[in-house]
Design goal:
The chain has 17 helices and 19 strands. The protein is of the alpha+beta class. The chain folds into 3 domains: 202 residues, no CATH class; 87 residues; 228 residues, Distorted Sandwich (Beta-galactosidase, Chain A, domain 5). The longest helix has 21 residues. The N terminus is likely disordered.
């Protein structure tokens, strides 16, 4: 298998190429080239990094199957379930849920795990299927079968041990031949993780060298100098960091040297993961991310062993972080990630999120995990972000399915701080091609955190309608006051904020929140509507914390 620096081709081409080989992978000839004997016994690592959910494990032991917010009754082979999304099938086929069985513990968990493994081998182990054998899913499943090998093999008979070993050898051999079809970034790292775990389980040696070298090249390309991932996605940041921590743990357990590049990447990525956290512990909603589970982020940061504090400015990943007292603002000041890394990228330049203490106030809409093309497109639009939309157009071209076409260029970013006050000025030209206008956003956060002000300035030509949107977290209660000149905002804690704006008409409109995985919540957005005059326009706005007795 040729393992080189990541290609910048869009992942679509890889998927098409991989799919085109489907008839070959399904053929009897291909399966005759895969191992049919167990060979040497497997060596399972002794690592236990990620806590599972004993409750979900108990559901699985009981015969049902709970995954990604959906329960399948009497699940004999959940990866064959009807009426579920491709993402659900992918999640089930990756076998991450084995950690839930381990959390439940006992002989019943072991037997249920073995039963499901046998069933997978019966239904998928002798025939290729596009999702189950996709390189990233395949790599994750191999790693999970090996990581939880002690659970699966404890008290197992010789027949199961041979079946498991033969299947792992087949899967690993297929992955060696197809790992290069994985999209660059997180999917390819997951594929390489599977090859590394397999090499360690089969005794290490030369089989370990190629995937390790390929991994070093991949992370050298993907992990930026400030620790951010090239995808500019907080969710991918978390996923890749966890995979690298897993690989480091497996190498240590096998008494193999951990390459310096892996350790350096972990040390850089952990502080950047902290950078993307709100006060509630969850992730900011940029580029296909949802809140994710705060406890998992806590565990990840602990397991990273990295103590670095988050940067205030991430110039390579192109985000700014403003903190004062209890107020946090995260702002996207960059362009979309490059082709090949933009599968889930959103058209939200200059969007921001704001939280106070452990409560979110201003958000982006987030990411929906289903197969609906309408939802997949809607969540990526500029209108789904707390930024400006001109003439109901997107600031970047959203390609059908995945990826970004015509894209904005980020203008130079200026950050100034004085006596605890912070100013950020940034811009983009995403509307230059369609309507001939550039967008400049300037925001200011006071030293006490109680005053966030912004100026959205448009320059160009012609008369264009535009709106500035501020999507609100579902927990925020909003009401128009002072004859529509401002909006009163109340948080669950009782804390109050007032929104004001000049240069446009304020309204409250419906919105949706997709920040909690697999849940669609109704919420509201503040919309300030205006029109440019001779191509120029400006809206000034402010969020001001109210006194406790207001």
């Amino acid at each position: 298998m040729a393992m080189q620096l990541p290609s910048m081709r869009r992942p679509t081409f890889r998927r098409l190429a991989h799919a085109a080989l489907g008839p070959l992978f399904k053929s009897r000839l291909w399966w005759l080239t895969l191992p049919r004997r167990a060979g040497t016994p497997l060596i399972f690592p002794s690592i236990d990094l990620w806590p599972g959910d004993a409750g979900r494990g108990a559901v699985i032991i009981g015969g049902d199957f709970q995954c990604a917010g959906k329960t399948i009754r009497e699940a004999d082979a959940p990866w064959l379930a009807a009426g579920v999304s491709k993402g659900w099938i992918a999640t089930v086929s990756a076998f991450d849920w084995l950690r839930d069985l381990r959390a439940a513990g006992g002989d019943a968990a072991r037997e249920r795990g073995r039963t499901l493994i046998r069933r997978w081998i019966e239904t998928h182990g002798t025939g290729w299927r596009d999702i189950a054998w996709r390189p990233d899913i395949l790599g994750t499943r191999i790693a999970n079968w090996i990581e939880y090998g002690a659970l699966l093999t404890g008290g197992a008979d010789a027949e199961f041990l041979e079946m498991l070993t033969v299947s792992l050898r087949k899967q690993a051999t297929h992955l060696q031949r197809t790992a290069s079809f994985a999209a660059p970034g997180a999917p390819r790292i997951r594929a390489l993780k599977g090859l590394i775990f397999a090499a360690l389980a089969f005794g290490g040696g030369k089989a370990l060298l190629k995937p390790l070298r390929a991994l070093e090249l991949q992370i050298g390309h993907d992990v930026l100098s400030d620790g951010g991932h090239l995808s500019r996605s907080p969710a991918v940041q978390l996923s890749v960091l966890r995979d690298l921590i897993d690989i480091r743990a497996a190498l240590r357990d096998s008494q193999q040297e951990v390459p310096e590049s892996i350790q350096t990447s972990i040390d850089r990525m952990a502080p950047m993961l902290r950078f993307f956290r709100h006060g509630d512990g969850g992730l900011a909603l940029f580029n296909g991310s949802d809140e994710d589970e705060g406890w998992l982020i806590d565990v990840t940061l602990t397991r990273s062993e990295a103590r670095g504090k988050p940067l205030e400015s991430a110039p390579h990943t192109a985000f700014e972080r403003l903190t004062a007292n209890r107020t946090l603002v995260l702002m996207d000041v960059g362009a979309p990630p490059p082709p090949g890394y933009d599968a889930e990228a959103h058209a939200g330049p200059l969007s921001f999120e704001m939280s106070t203490g452990k409560e979110r106030l201003v958000v982006n809409c987030g990411a929906h995990r289903g197969d609906s093309a309408d939802w997949q497109t809607a969540q990526r639009t500029t209108a789904a972000h707390s930024t400006i939309t001109i003439e109901d157009q997107n600031a970047a071209e959203i390609l059908p399915g995945a990826g970004i076409g015509a894209r904005p260029h980020a203008l130079p970013v200026e950050r100034r701080e004085a006596e605890g006050n912070i100013w950020i000025e940034a811009g983009h030209d995403g509307y230059k091609r369609s309507v001939g206008i550039e967008h400049q956003r300037r925001i200011y956060l006071s030293a006490n955190g109680g005053d966030l002000r912004g100026e959205d300035t448009l320059t160009g030509g012609g008369s264009r309608k535009y709106v500035t949107r501020f999507h609100l977290h579902p927990s925020v209660q909003a009401s128009m006051v002072q004859e529509g000149s401002s909006v009163l905002l109340r948080l669950t804690s009782g804390e109050g904020w007032r929104f004001r704006a000049s240069g446009g008409v304020i309204s409250l409109q419906e919105s949706v929140y997709l920040g909690i995985r697999d849940v669609v919540k109704r919420t509201e957005q503040i919309v300030v509507s205006a029109a440019t005059q001779n191509g120029n326009g400006q809206i000034k706005w402010a969020f001001s914390r109210l006194a406790k007795d207001a």
